[in-house]
Amino acid sequence: MAPRRGTTRRRFLKSTGLALAGLGLPRAIGAATADLKLKKPIKIGCQTILSGPLGGYGEFMRKGATLAMEEINAQGGIGGSPIEISFRDEELKVDVGVKNARYFVEDWGADFLIGIDSSAVALAVGEIMPSLNRILIVTHGATEKYNEDLVFKRHVRQCFRVCVPVYQDGIASALVAKDLPVKRWATISPDYEYGHTSWRMFRAYLKRFKPDVEFVGESFAKFGTVDFSSHISKVMGLSPEGIFSTEWGGEAVTMVKQAKLFKVFEQTKAFMIGMGAAMDVLQGLGADYPDGVWASGRYYFGYPDSAENKRFNEAFRKRWDTYPSYPSETAYTAVQALKKAVEKARSVETEKVIEALEGLELDRPAGKCVIRKEDHQAVYAVPWGQIRHDPKFPMPTLTNLKVFTTDEYYRKPPFAPVEG
Amino acid sequence: MRARLAAGAVLAVVVLLVPAIAGPFLRYLVLNMLLLALLALSFNLLFGMTGLLSFGQGAFYAGGAYSAALLLRAGVPLLWSILLGALAAAALAAVLGAFCVRHTRIYFSMLTLAFGMLVYAVVWKWTAVTGGDDGLIGIPRARIGLPGPLDFSLDSPARYYLFAAVLVLLSMAVLHRLSASPLGLALRAIRENAERAEFSGVPVRRTIYIAFVTAGLFAGLSGALLAPLEQTVSPSTAHWTKSAEPVMATLIGGPLSFLGPILGAVVYLGLKEIIVRFTEYWLLVFGLVLLAMVLVFRGGLVGAASRLRMPRRRT
Most buried one in A349, A417, B79, B93, CB count within 10 A? Predict the structure, then answer.
């Protein structure tokens, strides 16, 4: 199997490389990097959710990682070595994630690992990285325990993350909410770590910014919920003025559609969805997405207005014929960060690349970013914005973007416990 | 009988030789197969032998895994954590079994499924103890906990493999002995005709109860051995999809022979591992292959093999 795959991929890369060069993309005609005499090829194992109702997330992640690989290989690879990425289904299951990581390193010979959607899987795989002695760059799992506990408190140095953690959902959201004319908040959120933590942070920080708010109710829906009516009626019975939600993917789509039937958007003054600006939610709801809903993500294709972001959007659309979703950007950035770090370290050795990644500055599509040395977390700002329907785009987009400095909303070492 | 002993010896030698000949990933995969084989054997004590389809083995598997994980994190030596983990699972089975064995057939299956998901819900919600959906992380592979010079560390994966493999092989020997014991015969009698067994003096409900608790014990041992292997335990160990794995392994291998679940576990995990390397749409391919196997090999692989042998014997 392996040789056959290799040749097709090589052939395929050659043709895309030529195509990119022919199209005159500035990156593709950049000078090839000097040969650092590293091992060939440099192997990156990527695991993400590729099956089930959230499989679309993994598809977007794969597209982003693949684009980065093609661009890098067209320029001569990392220090003269081409990269090869292998994908495996994470299934959002801890045991599967751990097994994949072991397979990648011990059998396939991966030099680096990237990916992972579930927070629980990110923590579990992070746990075994010292024994595998490879670097893991998480591109989606968002629990703050990953950078705050695993890296900062327990010094698991092999773990990095290039996507914004729940600070986006729990703290930046509070910065938006403090200026809204809403005093009574309630939540409909997923019944696992991500949902609970986001709501806890949101309450703690909003209370700090605006002491007279009230949190009147909460309803947590278990994973795989298809009928939100009981959650909606429970929360609406408490007559909140604003609803905060961290439902995501297909569940966010279902929830919004059902909330419309209950006239929730007429009865409340604000509705916020942490992952509401993810491409699958925007495309999934389409015309059904009510105007004015506050939404965010880990990257929004329309921000920032930079040359790098424009180039990324164009390259992505040319290659895949769709707008990039946030896992595409984070996976793309993970691969690019590895390239930069390996070239800086002039080595693929774990210890040397860790040192190169610490404090690394990146000009990524989502903006300028730095990988914090203390907790190995990439620090960059993602906007919140309101849904609007712009005929120029095939899906709803964001308007009235609120961007906060990372200083305002990223928790900092030594990470005092979140009260409340 | 001699042939069986030889088969057992060959299995044991192969299993114990794995660290010497295989790479780290294959070693890890084989240990996973052994743990699933043990779980499937525990399940088959109820299914193949007694005729009761349990959909709740995951509850005891998770019970063993979480108990062992909590003990290890509290600094208890490895061997004792694992044995106590298995005993905790048996205790859980003793409680739940008291309800489950009151019914048979589909009612038994539904009860085990319901209790299994109850355990799952507890594991999911009781964040303070179980870590909720993040599970328990940072489980140490501590010292084994035997006195004096025998107290070595199992931190190296190869050593842990040998330790776990020996425990699994011993359990298999015990379960094999059990299937040929009077208890095993009584269970088969219940499977064939519970009423008749009752009239011949077999205390049906009590016998099933003993089988249920024993199955819980060995499922718990399998789960307890998982905790130090993965160094994390997550709620998916208690989910019904986990309970379905021993069912699949047993159906593939064949529920009516002792070897069936072991063979089934090897084929189930081996096939999955191979298919995943070829395609990202592995679920589809895997499902089709399993479907074909269940349809073509009725009575499982072992059943099909013995049918192939049968006609030759007759002539």
Answer: B93
Whether this model's ipTM surpasses 0.90 comes out as no
Q: What is the arithmetic mean of pLDDT over A373-386?
A: 96
- Do A340 and A393 share a structural domain? no
Whether A199 maps to a domain, the answer reads yes
DSSP E strand boundaries for A183-296? 184-190, 214-221, 242-245, 270-273, 294-295
User: Is the pLDDT reported for residue A13 higher than 80?
Assistant: no
According to DSSP, residue B123 is labeled: H
Question: Contacts of residue B157 in chain A, CB cutoff 8 Å?
Answer: 131
Q: What is the DSSP letter of A377?
A: B
Q: Quick check: bond before A41 cis, omega within 30? A: yes
Instruction: Look up the pTM and report it.
Output: 0.81
Query: Which strands sit side by side in the sheet containing A214-221, from one edge to the other?
Result: A214-221, A184-190, A242-245, A270-273, A294-295, A384-388, A397-402
pLDDT band at B90 (very low <50, low <70, confident <90, very high): very high
pLDDT of A6 higher than 50: no
How many domains does chain A divide into?
2
Q: Is residue A83 part of a domain?
A: yes
**Over 90: is that where the pLDDT of B294 sits?**
no
DSSP A148-179: IIIIIIT--TTEEE-S--THIIIIIHHHHHTT
Whether residues A238 and A193 fall in one domain: yes
Chain B CB contacts of A89 below 8 Å:
276, 280, 282-283
Q: Which residues of B touch A53 (CB under 8 A)?
A: none
The residue segments making up the domain with residue A405 are: 167-297+383-409
Domain assignment of residue A392, yes or no: yes
Q: Which of B 253-312 lie inside 8 A of A, CB atoms?
A: 273, 276-278, 280-283
User: What is the C-alpha to C-alpha distance for residues A102 and A120, in angstroms, rounded to an integer?
Assistant: 17
- CB-nearest to B25 from A102, A143, A191 is A102
Same domain assignment for residues A50 and A63? yes
Residues A372 and A388 in one domain: no
In this predicted model, what pLDDT tens digit does every residue of B14-42 receive, in sequence order? 888 888 888 888 898 999 999 999 999 99
Does one domain contain both A71 and A96?
yes
Per-domain residue ranges of chain B: 11-239
User: Does A255 share its domain with A308?
Assistant: no
Q: Which two three-digit tokens encode residue B140?
A: 């140490």
Q: Rounded to the nearest 5°, which phi and psi values hold at A290?
A: -65, 140
Q: How many alpha carbons fall within 13 Å on the CB side of residue A380? A: 28
Residue A419 lies in a domain: no
Instruction: Please answer yes or no on whether B132 and A192 come within 8 Å at the CB atom.
Output: yes
Backbone dihedral angles phi then psi of residue B146, each to the nearest 5 degrees: -95, 160
- Cβ contacts of B23 on chain A, cutoff 8 Å: 106-107
Q: Does A107 contact B25 at a Cβ distance shorter than 8 Å? A: yes
Mutate to test the interface with A, among B232, B237, B284 (most CBs of A within 10 A): B232
Mutate to test the interface with B, among A8, A47, A48, A127 (most CBs of B within 10 A): A127
Candidates B141, B161, B234, partner chain A, best to mutate (most A CBs within 10 A): B234
The share of chain A scoring above pLDDT 70, in percent, equals 92
Q: Provide the token pair at A245.
A: 């939600």
Average pLDDT of the residues of chain B = 88
Q: Please list every residue in chain B whose beta carbon sits closer than 8 Å to the beta carbon of residue A1.
A: 277-278
Of residues B75, B68, B221, B78, the one with CA closest to residue B146: B78
> Any idea what the CATH number is for the domain that residue A256 is in?
3.40.50.2300
- How confident is residue B289, by pLDDT bands cut at 50, 70 and 90? confident
Give pLDDT tens digits for A161-199: 999 999 999 999 999 999 999 999 999 999 888 899 999
Does the pLDDT at position A356 exceed 90? yes
CA gap A159, A136 in Å, rounded: 5
